[in-house]
Amino acid sequence: MVDVERALNKLRKEMRSGIYSYLILSMLESGEMHGYIIRKKLERLDFAPSEGALYDMLKSLERLGLIESFWVMERRPRKCYRLTDLGREVLKELKAEVDRILRVLGGVGNG
Amino acid sequence: MDERLFLSVLMLLTGLMTLAVRNRPNPFVGVRFGYTYLSKRAWKRANTFAGAFSLISGLLMLTLYLLDFPKSVILAVFLCCVATMAVLTYRIAKREYEIEDLSTPVGRAEPMEFGSNRVLIVEIALILLYLALVAILWKELPEKMAIHFDLYGKPDNFVSKPLGSIAVPVSLMSLILLLTFLAEKEPLLLRFPSVRSRKILMITQAMLFLVFVSVLFYNVGFISGEFVVVLCFLAVGVVIASALRS
Asked: N or C, fewer C-beta in 10 Å, chain B?
């Protein structure tokens, strides 16, 4: 039973990490966005990572050059994110990939 | 006091003091830059880490002192610990600030203004102007230059001409230039984010220029040591006033 839990947790984590990255890139496709808004949108999808996990994901996407951050001023400096040209290109590829995955999963589900 | 013991005790005391203020943000003791000034969470985490790190480093240095390690080894350990602590503490504070940012509702935000690149141009121009002055005065400058003075204007530290006229002044002025450049990329590296920090840095650069030029002029006999000291105090005053006005 412990092994089942462990395997499930590992697979869930890997699967979610990819989905989060895809969702973040998709959200930023429509325009720049503050990190708080990204988190709220993920929450509305009933799919919210912790702040720490989201921070690590944003950093990782930034390191890959898919998004870039910049500061805006409210009462204090706040960080916003936007898609880079590379991010836009990668997102296009990913969308096609996700469509294929959904078709395959749909097939498996029906089959 | 033995310098090795002094450094070890200094590290230990810094650690204890930093830990003592880890829950009380203040402008005097602790890790202080934009992130920790603006976020209690960043202040607490950064200072808890820095305090503990400093305490452990101090204990390590004290052990090396008791085992009679030479001064060079203890100094090297001290410098490594300070550099590692600075980098890690900055990263912790930045992470905590940004994580807090992710959970704080966002209101109406304005683009962050960093001012024009005129600040950078002025700072570069001041370095070039200083170098031009050195080139003009090079033959007049003594081989051993006075670079430090006591309160009465009597020189108390001498270095070689290349070090005193070029290496030290240009390094310091380049450091200010680097900080001005970084202020846009990492605005919270400094205490005052955005335009203000860049203005303060530009004023600091101008004051450094004046001080280094006055040292050059002293060494070629144009002005007295007392004048250099008065100018230094004036320069420090101008920088502090510009920071307080911000």
From this structure: N
The pLDDT tens digits for B194-209 are 667 888 899 999 999 9
Q: Which of A61, A71, A79 to mutate to test the interface with B (most CBs of B within 10 A)?
A: A71
Subunit contact A36:B107, Cβ cutoff 8 A:
no
Specify the length of chain A in residues: 111
CB A50 within 8 A of CB A39: no
Q: Residues for chain B: how many in total?
A: 246
How would you class A82 by CB atoms within 10 Å of its CB: exposed for 0-12, middle for 13-18, buried for 19 or more? middle
Q: Are B188 and B210 in contact (CB under 8 A)?
A: no
* Vertex B133 angle, CA B132 and B134, to 5°: 90
**Residue to test with chain A: of B33, B39, B40, B101, most A Cβ within 10 A:** B101
Q: How far, in Å, CA of A76 to CA of B29, rounded? A: 22
So what's the ipTM on this one? 0.86
B224 Cβ contact list (under 8 Å, min separation 6) = B153, B218
pTM for this model (two decimals):
0.79
Nearest in space to B193 (alpha carbons), one of B185, B234, B60: B185
Contacts of A53 in chain B (CB under 8 A): none
- For B207, phi then psi, to 5°, come to -70, -40
> In whole angstroms, what is the distance from residue B99 CA to residue B125 CA?
39
In DSSP terms, A73 is beta-bridged to A77, B110
Q: Which domains does chain A have, with CATH numbers?
A: 2-110 (1.10.10.10)
